């Protein structure tokens, strides 16, 4: 059952205390909470949500500090809103009555590679 915003209770102080006192326990609870949120999402969106969470986890792992991770994840979010083919672009196209343009299959550019000569040549 999907919970509405009213029924979700997030105790920031409890989570912050857990993160300070037991970082491994915090991480385990964080992963459980995220997995529960994905399980409650419509089936057709779960794969995409898991992929997004994977990307976020990779940013967190490579960022070096929590603040750096926060800034990079914030940039990711803003890019989906104001970046190319982001929310703003799509809303603008919808408001102008234009369908979203999509590339027909097979319309990619093929880049030829030079063949390397083998020692036998």
Task: Walk me through this protein's architecture.
By secondary structure, the protein is mainly α. The protein contains five helices and no strands. Helix 3 packs across helix 4 (66-82). The longest helix is centred in the middle third of the chain and has 21 residues, at 43-63.
- The number of distinct β-strands equals 0
In DSSP terms (H or I, runs of 4 or more residues), the helix count works out at 5
Shape: extended
Distance between the termini: 67 Å
Low-confidence stretches: none
SSE run: HHHHH
Largest sheet: none
Let me know the average pLDDT: 85
What is the percent of helical residues? 55-70%
State the secondary-structure class.
mainly alpha
Portion in beta strands: under 5%
Radius of gyration: 22 Å
Concise overview:
The chain has helices spanning 12-21, 23-40, 43-63, 66-82, 87-95.
Fold blueprint:
Elements: H1 12-21, H2 23-40, H3 43-63, H4 66-82, H5 87-95
Helix pairs in contact: 1-2, 2-3, 3-4
Which characteristics define this entry?
5 helices; mainly alpha; about 120 residues
């Amino acid at each position: 059952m999907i919970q509405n915003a009213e029924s979700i209770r997030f105790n920031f102080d409890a989570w912050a205390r857990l993160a300070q006192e037991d970082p491994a326990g915090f991480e385990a609870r964080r992963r459980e909470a995220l997995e529960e949120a994905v399980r409650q999402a419509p089936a057709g969106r779960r794969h995409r949500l898991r992929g997004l969470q994977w990307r976020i986890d990779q940013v967190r792992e490579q960022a070096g500090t929590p603040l750096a991770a926060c800034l990079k994840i914030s940039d990711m979010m803003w890019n989906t809103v104001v970046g190319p083919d982001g929310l703003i672009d799509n809303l603008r196209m919808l408001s102008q009555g234009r369908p979203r343009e999509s590339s027909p299959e097979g319309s990619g550019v093929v880049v030829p590679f030079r063949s390397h000569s083998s020692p036998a040549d």
